[in-house]
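Notes from the 1:1 (GR / supervisor)

We went over the backlog. Supervisor wanted to see one worked example end to end before approving the batch request, so GR pasted a single chain during the call. The sequence is below; no edits were made to it. Supervisor asked that the structure be written out right there so they could see what the output format looks like.
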Amino acid sequence: MIVDIQLSSAHNDWPVLRDAVLQAEADGYDTTWVLDHFDGTVFDKGDRDVLECFTLLGALAEATTTIGIGSLVANVANRHPAVMAACASSVQRISGGRLKLGIGAGADPSTPWAREHLERCIPLLPELADRHAAVVHQIEVLRTIEPMPIIVGVNSVALASIAGQYADGVNIRLSSPHSAGYLAAAREAAGDKPFDCSGWAAPDDQASREKAYELGLDRLIIARLEAL
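Structure output shown during the call:
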């Protein structure tokens, strides 16, 4: 199983992140993943605005040479579909083809995760079906630019099925009691095509690590959402 690492710009600024990713590259991690948020205080002990996702990915692309770089996940509500495509295309060209683009449907407007959008007057689609349709549309737009793996972060069977049908991979939160069901739905929808199945877990979450092996995941993403 491939092991990746996710680091947080809600807790660390650029010099620390750059050095940590360079160390991860030297240590042999396959890919490093970054956040796509605005207000870092939505995370436990986050204390700063998050570095913009694609700006950070471009900087990491220039600072590194071999490690993959990815978003976990880029919220389709944060940018016009054409803008996200232009951002992803730019990072893919700068990195020499090392981008893995994780995307997600975003939060329901009534949830605490929506606060950072509501405070910035960024509209969120109220209906789940419409948020899922936005993911499908974003994938369709992304297919018109430089090829790159597109992974969908899911928290429902419906979105997992969309990931299997339209994307190149799925990402699940291993601590979710429904993670096995999400994974099964994605794999069924993907059929026989190549399809990357990943799960993320906290560094000290041994139960989730064991579940990753039990589920036969292709990659485990260790999410270090803390100050380094």
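Supervisor's comment: The chain has a mean pLDDT of 97.
Batch request approved.
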